[in-house]
Amino acid sequence: MNEILTQILTVGTLAVILAKTTPILLAAIGGGLTQVGNILNIGLEGLMLIGAFAAVAVGAVTNPFIGVLAALGGGVLLALVYAIASLVFKADYIVVGIGTNLLAVGITVLLLTVLYGNAGVTPGDVKAMLPRIDLGPLGGIPVVGPIFDHHTVLVWVALALVPVYWFVLYRTRYGMHLRAVGEDEGAAVAAGIRVFRVKFISIVVSGALCGLAGAQLAMASVGSFTAGMTSGRGFIVVAAVIFAAGRPLPTLVICLIFGAADGLADRLALGGVNSSLALLTPYVITIMALIVAALRVRSAIRARTRRGLAQMAA
């Protein structure tokens, strides 16, 4: 037991948690944008997966930063498919999200087979690793330095995007329109807001951020692509988005919790805990978060109903 606690309670664990949080946070900010606009995008898993593949495939033959751009582009392209199907052809968001996930799995397996002759994983010589940023003297600051030192640039991008996300939502014209569309689409149309444009932008930006999340997932520590390597993280992100209701600070907090669960699972496995039991930890927390979110939504609906009845009685 002491060995397990020693393995977990270290500064290195906090650094791992930050790294594990990054892809979840990037995708959650993207998913939060669509959630604020009243679009529950469950296709985040597929968007992350296509980004991970594009990052490794392109980054291996060029350089990692070109791979990051490719991941962003791959996420955007798949998001365009989602946007066209849901906004132009009026397909159900949930159904389109499921289709997006299945499409991403099929495309990545097909490309693995065609390009590398292996439907499971990229060859050993196909590698793309993002360089890590050395903070120099700042990295020597006790406790804090080692936590933030030697991370990829996408870790810093994810942290910087939290205040940017807040600013966009609450201090820009687009953010005001997005929130108006999410609260009452009919009233937004009556007010002259271009609902299609607002939702379209949110979906495309969501795809771009999920692509970056896939790049971090593939190129931060592994440097290769494995079929289905997102391993349900997209659904963990959906849980985070639902729980945080698209709000910036709660999104960061929830993503840190999920990142901690993922990081602790790795540390528990290294500490000798059954690996299957350790890997179950993030998903148990996801289920708990969804239950709490469902109870909160039910409570809000009941409160709204009571207020409506009271107004009618008055």
Automatic annotation (TrEMBL):
It is a multi-pass membrane protein. Its main location: membrane. InterPro entries: ABC_transp_permease (IPR001851). Keywords: Cell membrane, Membrane, Transmembrane, Transmembrane helix. Pfam families: BPD_transp_2 (PF02653). It is found in: Cell membrane. The chain crosses the membrane at residues 6-27, 39-59, 65-85, 92-116, 153-170, 200-219, 276-297. The keyword Ribonucleoprotein does not apply. This is ABC transporter permease. It comes from Microbacterium alkaliflavum.
